[in-house]
Write a structure and sequence with these properties.
The chain is of the alpha/beta class. The chain has 4 helices and 9 strands, in the order βαβαββαββββαβ. It has one domain: P-loop containing nucleotide triphosphate hydrolases (Rossmann fold, 3-Layer(aba) Sandwich). Strands 1, 2, 5, 6, 7, 8 and 9 form a 7-stranded mixed β-sheet that branches. Strands 3-4 form a two-stranded antiparallel ribbon. A hairpin with a 4-residue loop joins strand 3 and strand 4. Helix 1 packs across helix 4.
Length: 174
């Protein structure tokens, strides 16, 4: 399993890019999984549904299974957020995992950058950034700069720069 990340500030277009690049990678015959980091409370359940009620009643883990998909919702309670490596270990085998977020974790990443967001580049302060995907020319970068609308070039870079999970340096929650 190889890992590549997309990092950038909120509003830079990471999720939009993920949804455009996955089909390009799948067309190349790759089986792709994603891991998305959320900086806020989120819920995959709908209040009032049976699985939500199970968790509200105190179940620490609830599996939801149908003929089309399954999911396990794990309540952390007071436990710390799991490390990226722990989450990766729970995934089924795939060719490529795209990690959205975890911008401080030491894995290879493409930075998604839009000057209009008003935040600084993460590059060059993060030596794990292998390329920058942006919506306007960017001078002075020491890594390749790709245009956000060039999905094939971004897919090429992601496939080329992905690293096997065994090469990741474990770090506490990023």
């Amino acid at each position: 399993m190889r890992i590549i990340g997309l990092a950038g500030w909120s509003g830079s277009g990471k999720t939009t890019l993920v949804t455009k690049v996955i089909p390009a990678l799948v067309r190349r015959g790759l089986k792709v999984a994603t891991v998305k980091h959320a900086h806020h409370d989120f819920d995959t359940d709908q209040p009032g549904k049976d699985s939500w009620l199970h968790r509200q009643a105190g179940a620490s883990e609830v599996a939801i299974v149908s003929s089309r998909r399954w999911a396990i919702v794990h309540e952390l309670g007071d436990a710390p957020e799991p490390a990226l490596e722990d989450i990766l270990a729970k995934l089924s085998p795939v060719d490529l995992v795209i990690v959205e977020g975890f911008k401080r974790h030491p894995h290879p990443k493409l930075e998604v950058y839009r000057a209009a967001v008003g935040k600084p580049l993460l590059h060059p302060d993060d030596d794990c950034i292998v390329a920058i995907a942006t919506d306007a020319p960017l001078a002075g970068a020491s890594v390749p700069v790709l245009m956000l609308d060039d999905i094939e070039a971004i897919a090429d870079a992601m496939a080329a720069e992905a690293q096997t999970s065994e090469h990741l340096v474990p770090r506490e929650t990023a």
